[in-house]
Amino acid sequence: MPKLTIDGIEVEVPAGTTVLQAAEILGIEIPRFCYHERLSIAGNCRMCLVEVKPGPPKPAASCAMPVAEGMDVRTDSEMARKARKGVMEFLLINHPLDCPICDQGGECDLQDEAMTFGNDHSRYGEMKRSVTEKEMGPLVKTAMTRCIHCTRCVRFTTEVAGVPEMGMLGRGEHAEITTYLEQALDSELSGNVVDLCPVGALTSRPYAFTARPWELRKTESIDVLDALGTNVRIDVRSGQVLRILPRLNEAVNEEWLADKSRHAMDGLRQQRLDTPYVRKDGQLVPASWEEAFAAIRAKVAGLDGSRIAAIAGDQADCEAMTALKDLMGVLGSTNLDCRQDGAKLDPTVRAGYLFNSTVEGIESADALLLVGSDPRWEAPVLNARIRKRYLAGGFKAGRIGPAGRDLTYPVEELGVDPSVLIEIAEGRHPFAEVLKAAKTPMIILGMGALTRTDGAAILAAARKVADTTGMVTEGWNGFSVLHTAAARVGGLDLGFVPGSGGLDTRGIQAGCASGAVEVLYLLGADEIDTNALGKAFVIYQGSHGDAGAHRADVILPGLAYTEKEATYVNTEGRPQRTKVAGFGPGEAKEDWKIIRALSGALDKTLPLDSVHQVRARMAEINPVLGTMNAVTPAAWEAFGTEGPVDTAAFTTAIANYYMTCPISRASPTMAECTRVFINGNQERTGTDG
Amino acid sequence: MSGSATEAFQFTPEYMEQAKAILAKYPQGRERSGVLPLLDLAQRQLGWVSTGVVEEVARITKTPRMKVLEVATFYTMYKHSPKGRHHVEVCTNIACWLRGSDEVLRAIKDELGIDVGGQTGDDLFSLAEAECLGACCNAPMLQIGDEYFEDLTYETTRDLVRKLKRGEPVKVGSQIGRSGSEPEGGPTTLAEFCTTSKVGGAE
Ligand code: SF4
Ligand code: FES
Predict the structure, then answer these.
(1) What CATH number belongs to B86-174?
(2) Residues of chain B positioned with their CB less than 8 A from the CB of A131
(3) pLDDT value at position A689?
């Protein structure tokens, strides 16, 4: 380990560390534009110049210089400062200095560094160069005259996102950053280039000219638009969510955020349920809470529990599911399910429904079998983790499911239907050898494989693959279920599933159609076929006027994830909590409180008077929910039901990445993304940017 | 010298032969190394580098098309629009300029009636300025295709263009008969050594 001194402080770092990183360890910050710890080193902005002895008597780029024994680095010497001033002057020659009309203003690296190294006047009297805007699609707005050619955006899209569609054309004075033929940036991670761009060349199109960073109140929270549980920061002004940014969590999302999670938030302002509704003469009319509860009471009172059912949706929080489960308990119903897509997940064995390898664990896997899963759409940030693993080398991936879709890393197409899975489980397929030869093989089982009628048999077959190829060993469990719903693992952990003799989602729907179920409680469940619920009395509790609300007889307005403090368990089994960032509209209330109030109106008052009691009850049902932010490894036990499988090909769980939940379906930005990326309509409309 | 930017491009069988020979020089999995020569080859066939060329070269070399486009736009030797059959590039950098590149340009403008960036109506000639082409010893000079024409004057330039117009043979290299970049009027040192025609481009 080489020893060196930086600004007179001695430090010993592993060989291969760069001078800039070594300085960081000491807490000495060297200014930089192009360097980013998650991207390859480009060394092209020259802002990080330092003085290094011994060596040639000129400043050196610290981001690209590996440390060496006995180096004497000065980050703040006369030479270093003068060099950076010079670099800054060059950068500003062609920079438009249009900070007052630039969205990056106030959070711009160039602006910040110019405070330290900039001059108070310009010595450049010629015309500045100007560059035309580049079209990059509905999410990224460009002002390329501001670009300082750090190539962070190019490196991100090429390396992390795996979509090599950005690049720098021309050279020198004429260099311009663009996408190939100015096509929209077709990546589910494109929003991250806005975060990475150190200047205002790439900014968020939906957020354009909306707010200044110092006007925003920032709340650290959790995303629930996919099951990854990305850590986010929610920026709010006057109670309104204006933007969502990623927050660092190495174990979950590193520092990336998927486009839907970032941009669907304008759906929080559309289609909101802001008051209770009761259906009168076929018409939904606004009502008071008392009227709504009275309507429910009139229907439920005296009804046998077996005629009541509840389905929890994809964004239901643990607190609400706890309360609803208990309410169903006191009403004597065992007809409840949190798997509205009908996934044949086994709730009794936790290891059977978790992403056991953990997200971070993907990086230690050396072989991967994807079954009925499209991680690029189901969890884009997790997919970037798989790509990262692939880039590290010595990794083989195979896929059973719809072929041809580019996942940004090569996959061997093994087949499209479950028979291949059975062959691998029985060791009759060459890929079984690949998995057996691997030290830490893993399987990712998607909802495309489990929502089928033979899902339970497929789950059993996947388990058999795990057993026969050595996926479960001391300290490693490669059996990983990739969920699409943020609520799913929490629901299963809480046992929000049919009790003894109870009906599951399919049974409940059939029951509604046949009249066996008379009251159906939908807790934010919109992805079921709401037209096939027969004459059932439907109570819809949720935040948006989506499919469920349209069918409802009583609507109870709930809060969305940015408006409540609620617990969600991500696909790897990590309980995390959202925070209150903005206010809900009108009468909308926290979901568990609504259920608690309803229980009182039904004379079945639940002993849940405070959020502490709800959380205590949660931990009582499943102790795992008592510890936040930690993954508790699950014991490997028997699950799934062996049986015959269908030969029908797997389908994908998501038809349109940009619209998967009430929030994203209500979002104008997501509608625009659908138009451009899903329907392939690249033409801009007059309302763009 | 034809085609729109987006028209698909394919190598003719003869050019494809050459492309394969070029790619064979690089190890398997390193097809990317062939991007530069293949772009050049395509330009020889089509006359310029169209989007179709970029995409075909990307496909053959298994390189992301954006990376091919980056390379193609980095080097000025790749043309991004159709040019005249004789694309005349006149060096106007310091050495040529001091030695009379203004006269060379004037001669071409007078003879063809086009300006820098222009093209004759019959698509026979197009004119461009070039940065230093590395023949400063024999300045001023211009380049047409693969050939250099050096030691030019107003008259010799006009003469050169006139001959090209008529399709007559032209003299490449130095127009005043010096060999390589040796001094005007023959070698001044190692004279004996050179006359034995062991080295240099003695005619
Ligand atoms: S657009 Fe931004 S991130 Fe991309 S090269 Fe320019 S300054 Fe860097
Ligand atoms: S940060 Fe070192 S050159 Fe850009």
Answers:
(1) 3.40.30.10
(2) none
(3) 41
